[in-house]
UniProtKB/TrEMBL annotation:
Species: Algoriphagus sediminis
Protein name: Sugar phosphate isomerase/epimerase family protein
Claim: Isomerase is one of the keywords in the record: yes
KW Mitochondrion (keyword) present: no
Domain of life: Bacteria
InterPro entries tied to this protein: IolE/XylAMocC-like, Xyl_isomerase-like_sf, Xyl_isomerase-like_TIM-brl
Length: 283
């Protein structure tokens, strides 16, 4: 049975008690869980927010990214070691929140590129860091689901085929694939065929509109998406990820220069869309 989540990045990247009223209302709407960005925030805040979620009956998933000085595909041993250490710290904070999934493009550094196409050595170096990450995450009861991003934000994995190639190199049962409809809309030839391709390894799923606004307000074919998920018998999270300029520092870091949708419109209408699509495409 699928669970429906909402990523609170629509309001803020910072994990703090300021999110409590937002979490309360998301629970009232009907969400099963929420997703937080794990960044360099006060460590005690993760436990406080995690406790509030547990008290509400909201489950938790998490997302993170890597910087250039902690790039898992770096040819420099010290940089890759820093990547391992960063990811272990992130997983500890995810555990403080009570998270069961860590998703995101942490297989490589965000928006860090080479003057060539990715090569086997890039995937090989990433796989070594990812294997260690999967091992540590397994000890915490957290599933790792690295994500393929579009070509303007990611060098290593833009498609499900590339992500699958990496996962074969990692070869660890606690590391599966993440699919995001926003990125797939740009990089895949077919949403349904790419979902079918990665289905055996699919561990997490983001419902995102083409412009990152309210799901259902753009041109993503969600009928195609949900029909493919039903065919694949996917039973994991369906988490809405939409962005705004509510948190200017975060918005600036990912190139969000205008408002796509108001956060509560995103949350309320996105929830209705997912519920209706699940009902429509149920067996």
């Amino acid at each position: 049975m699928n669970k429906i989540g909402f990523n609170v990045l629509a309001w803020s990247a910072v994990v703090s008690e300021d999110l409590f009223p937002i979490l309360d209302r998301l629970k009232e709407i009907g969400y099963d869980g929420v997703e937080f960005f794990v960044g360099p925030w006060e460590e005690k805040a993760f436990k406080r927010v995690g406790k509030h979620c547990a008290d509400l009956g909201l489950e938790v998933t998490t997302v993170t990214v890597m910087g250039e000085d902690e790039n898992p595909i770096s040819p420099h041993t010290k940089v890759r070691q820093k990547a391992k250490e960063k990811l272990q710290w992130v997983l500890d904070r995810a555990a403080d929140l009570g998270s069961t999934v860590l998703c995101g493009p942490y297989h490589s550094a965000f928006a860090t590129f080479e003057s060539r196409a990715p090569e086997h050595e890039d995937y090989f170096r990433s796989a070594k860091v990812m294997y260690a990450t999967a091992e540590y995450a397994e000890s915490l009861g957290i599933l790792c689901t690295p994500e393929a991003l579009n070509r303007f934000e990611c060098f290593l994995c833009n498609t499900m085929e590339q992500l699958d190639y990496l996962l074969k190199e990692v070869d660890h049962p606690n590391m599966k694939a993440m699919f995001d409809t926003h990125h797939a809309n740009m990089e895949e030839k077919s949403l349904s065929k790419s979902i079918e391709y990665i289905a055996p390894k699919l561990g997490h799923f983001h419902i995102s509109e083409n412009d990152r606004g309210t799901p259902g307000s753009g041109h993503i074919n969600f009928d195609e998406v949900f029909a493919a998920l039903a065919k694949a018998k996917y039973e994991g999270w369906l988490t809405i990820e939409g962005f705004t300029r509510n948190d200017p520092d975060f918005a600036n870091s990912i190139g969000v220069w205008r408002e796509f949708s108001e956060p509560w419109e995103m949350a309320e209408n996105g929830y209705k869309l997912i519920k209706s699509m699940l009902e429509k495409h149920s067996d």
